[in-house]
Amino acid sequence: MDLERRNEELEELYLLERCFPEAEKLKRETRLLSQWKHYIQCDGSPDPSVSQEINTFISLWKEETNETFEEVIGKSKLVLNLIDKLKLILLETPPYDLQDKIVTQYQGSILELQELLHCKFNTATEILLRQASTLADLDSGNMEKVIQDENITLYVWANLKKNPRYRSVRFSETQIGFEIPRILATSDIALRLLHTHYDHVTPLRPVPTSLQEHTSTITNLVRDEEKNLEAAISKEMQEECKQEENESNSVHEEEIKVEDQGETEVKMSSVQEEPEVTKCELEMKLISETVLAAQLLLLENAHEKPSDLDDNEVDLCQFTTLGGVYHLDILELPPQCKPMKGWMVVEILKEGLQKYIYPPETTEDFETEYSFPPIEVTLEVHENVIFFEDPMVARWDAEGKHWKTDGISNVSYKSEERLITFNLETFGPVTLIQDSHINMPYQSWELRPLDVNKVLLSVTTIFAEIQIQIKENLCMLASIKVNNKKHSSILEGRWMTPVSFITALKEAGLNIFPTRHSHFYVIINYKVPLTEMKAYRQMALLSSAFAFGWSRWNMLCDSKKVVFKVREHLRKEEPIEDPNWALLMFSGDRAQRLKIDEYSDTFSEALKEETEFHSTLYHMVKDFASEEAMEKIRSSNDQFIDSVGHMLLLTRVLSYS
C-alpha cells in the first residue's frame, strides 16, 4: 500500500470522523440549554444545578414539620427527581468539562437531599407510631400498617399486647416479616421494614481524576496552539495595515488616497475572514482531541486491584447492589395518643424516634446466644430486578461506611415467589448483591442495521440474550431472553439517552458494561486500547449499511489486532439463517480481508485473493460495497454514529467476548 494512497485514506477518514466532535458540540449546546428550558417551564421546582435554588428548597422543607408518611411520599417524588437530575449531569458531562468545585457542589446537594429525605421518613414513622393504639388490629390487638408507592414500601408493626406467644410477624397475609425472640415479643417495641427501591446508602462514586488530568493536558496543548495562531494572525494583520499605510503616504492627494483606502478595506476583511475559519477549525480540533482522549481512557484497564478492604467487606468493583435498600429497625414504641375531654393528648419526646438496641451491648456472650438469638427475616425481591443466581445478602456497617457479609446466616431463596429468608444478628440497612460480571465474558454479539439511522445490538451471554436498539441519540431495550425464555422487563420499549439507559440496565441487573477494574474479576481477550477504540469508531461509521458480528478467530489473533465478521445489510427484514459473512482483521492502521472463513480448520492471516490492504475499515468495505450502502454511510446522522460508538465502547464486545 503506497504512502500517497494511505494519506488520502486517512484524510478522508478524518473528515468522516468529524461526526464525533460535531455530536459533542450538540451535546454541549443541549447541556447549556437545559437551565433555560427549566426556567421557562415555570413549574415551581428548583433547578438542582443552581446552588441558591436547591439550598432554599432544602431549608424550606426542613422547616415543614408534622408531615404524615403519605405527605412525605408525595414530596419524595420531587426530591428523587432532583437527585436523579444531579446524578445525570455528573454522568453525562465529560470529566474534562467538569470543574472540581461543581462536582463538590452537586455531590454535596445529593447527600443533603438523601439525608433529609430519610430524616423525613423517620419523623413520619414516629408520627404514625404515636397513633398505634388507635390503629390496632381487632384480632391481634397489635398495630400493623403497610404503605406502598412506586419508590418505597413501608411495613410497620407495633407490639401493643406484648403477648410472649406472638412470635411470628407477617404483613398483610404475605410471607414478608420476622420471627422474633421472646424478649422482643414482651417489649414495648415496633418493627419497621422500609424498603426504598433506590440506594441512598452506598457512597457516591468519585469522578475519575485521571481522565480529567489527561484530557486537560490535551486541551491546554490545543489551546496554546490556538493562541499562537491568533498571535501570528494578529501580527500579520498589523504588518498588512502598516504596509498599506506606507503606500498611501507615498502617493499624491485625495483621489488616489480614496482608492487605496478601498483596497485596504477589502484586504482587511479577507484577512479577518481567515482567522475566523482557522479558529473554527481549531475549535473542532480541540473537541476532537478531547473526545478521542476520553474514548481511549474508557478502554484503559486499571493497573491495581482494590486491596484496602476489611474482612467480609463487599468489593463494589466486583459486586452491585440491586433492588434498593431494606432499612430494618427495632424501634422503641413512643408514648401513645390518649383521648381527654374531647382532645387527643400525646407526650412528644424531645429526642424523637429511638432505636431499641438488640442485642444489648453489655450482655455476656453465653447470655446473648440464648436470650438474644439472630432474628429470622423474610423479604420480597423487587419485581423489576433480575438475579441470574441466588442473591447474596449484605448489611451496612455504619462505622466503616461499607457493606459487609458477616452477621448473616441461613440464607435461602425461593425464586418463583421472589422471597429471600435469612437470620440477622443486628438490625440495620441490608441489601441484595450480585456479581457485576455474571454476564461476562459474552458468548457472541452482533450489530446490524434496522433502518435509516437505526441499529440493533445483540449481546449473548451464558444466561441471557440482550437486544438493544439505537436510533439517533437514543437507546431502548428491544427484548431480553433469560435461559432461552422471553423475559418481560419494565425497560422494554422505553427510549432513553445512552447514559440514562446504561444506568437503568445496571439497576435492573442487566450489566454488560465492564469497568476499568473488570479484568481482575473475569477472563478477557485483551486488546490494545488504541486498536479497540479505532475499531469501534469505524464500525459505528459503517453501522447504517453494514452488519458486524463475533468471530472465534478474534481469540487467536494477537492483542494488537481484532477480527470480526462483516457483511452489507440494507434490508429491513430479519437476516437469513446463514448469511455470507466476510472476515476482516484490523490493527488500527491497517485493514485486510482474510482468506479463511468462520468454519476454517486453522487460523491464518493470509490475504483473500483479489483484495488489498487498506488503512481504514471504511476503505476496506468500500471495495465490495454497493453504491447504495456507501450513500447510506455518508448520509448517517452524527448523533446516531456517536451513540453507536458510545455503546460499543462501553460494552467492549471485542475484548469481553
From TrEMBL:
It comes from Equus asinus (Donkey). This is Dynein axonemal intermediate chain 7. Belongs to the DNAI7 family. Residues 243-266 have a biased composition (Basic and acidic residues). Residues 243-274 are annotated as: Disordered. Residues 2-165 form the IC97/Casc1 N-terminal domain. Residues 401-569 form the CASC1 C-terminal domain. One of its GO terms (molecular function) is beta-tubulin binding. Pfam families: Casc1_C, Casc1_N. One of its GO terms (cellular component) is axoneme.
